[in-house]
Amino acid sequence: MGRETSTMKSKFAAVVLAAASLAAALLMGSPMAANAADKPLIGLTFDDGPSVQRTAFVLDVLKQKGVKATFFLQGNHAQQYPDLVRRIKAEGHVIGNHSWDHANFPELSQTRQRQEVDRTNAAISAITGATPKLMRFPFGNSTSYSLNYIRSIGMSGGIQWRWHVGQPGDFECPGAAGVQKYVLDEAAPGAIILLHDGNDVLSCPASQWSYLARTIDALRARGYDFGVVAPSATANPLNEGSYGVVVAP
């Protein structure tokens, strides 16, 4: 995702129940066949990939732990590493659009904003046979034009994340314990959690990546299960007003 801005740190108290999340997703025609969950759901999301350095590792851990996640892919990376994109899809994860080259949309012309979305959708569709329904803007920064545009082509977004406590994220290289603390502090029923498998996080020490398996175990010990992000008909205050909810895969 790159360096996230402090504007993401607003306070809110809403708690989204899994049943309500499912209903909202179905209103928008969720691409997933979602079933009612017995436990509150957390949605792990990974931005900026795929990368040869870390995406396969993340997929290995998720497979070992039986977790489905949502990957917001950068279009130029998807085009460069199509085998990783195919593996993400084949293993049952959801794929979203994270722009072509991680540009900051408020700095772009309207033509360039459309191109960032369309070029990434085309690259992912060419590899997987499916066009993403979810959009997460780089840095979480959308524009009124880009939001209207993605809606006009049947997409939902921008998909934000829960940033209530504001601990350092994985892209800030806080180490394995730091990333785990960040995720556990932000955990809540229906929370979308921002993580990365490309760009800035690749410069973090390799030891940091032990957080993933440990954090999955810690969340399960707290009674959570894991879901994927699906489109929502309404803004979700738990996750910074995202038009997306966590549903059972």
TrEMBL record:
Signal peptide: 1-36
CDD domains according to UniProt: CE4_NodB_like_6s_7s (cd10917)
BP term (GO), one: carbohydrate metabolic process
InterPro entries: Glyco_hydro/deAcase_b/a-brl (IPR011330), NODB_dom (IPR002509), Polysacc_deacetylase_ArnD (IPR050248)
Domain NodB homology residue range list: 40-227
Domain of life of the native organism: Bacteria
An example Gene Ontology CC term for this record: membrane
One Pfam family cited in the UniProt record for this chain: Polysacc_deac_1
PROSITE patterns: NODB
One example GO MF annotation: metal ion binding
Keywords: Hydrolase, Metal-binding, Signal
Name this protein carries in UniProt: Peptidoglycan/xylan/chitin deacetylase, PgdA/CDA1 family
